[in-house]
Amino acid sequence: MRALHLLLCLVPLMPHLALCYPDYVPQSACDWLAPWHEPYTDPAEGPAPYKLRIYHSQAPAGIPVPVSVVGSQPFLGFMVQAHDAGSGQAVGSWQVTPHIPATTMTCSNPDNTVTHNSRVSKQLVPLAWLPPKGYNGTVFFKGTVVATYTTYWTDIASAPFRVVSV
């Protein structure tokens, strides 16, 4: 009887619990590159204490490009895409390794988005983006970083860099 009472108390909370995504990002986040947490909050204002760090101003197409999500303070989650500077469309794909707290997801194309897969606090996440073979163009990384459940920054962008077909 006690178990039934506990279950009846928890069932009304299940929709709220289902909206907490500490270990992954739901597909619906692709539309905004922002968290979908209740209570819904606006992004934090002012400069973000996080950066999408690139290490080169030019990269060859088809070769992985290192990029890092870096913070001056710890963060819990992130979501990043590479965008063509001309069209604004997400391009390329992400490569992740088991020791990195990240996973890929498919938004508009396979593996074109990378996000957190762990609720562990982090200050640096090294990533690898793979430009499409034969691609020529200017790219920038764009993302969101979640500091706490209700505090996050959107539209964090890297410096643009050139991808050249080899």
UniProtKB/TrEMBL annotation:
The keyword Nucleotidyltransferase does not apply. Pfam families: Reeler. Residues 1-20 form the signal peptide. Keywords: Signal. GO terms for cellular component: membrane. Residues 15-166 form the Reelin domain. This is Reelin domain-containing protein. It comes from Scylla paramamosain.
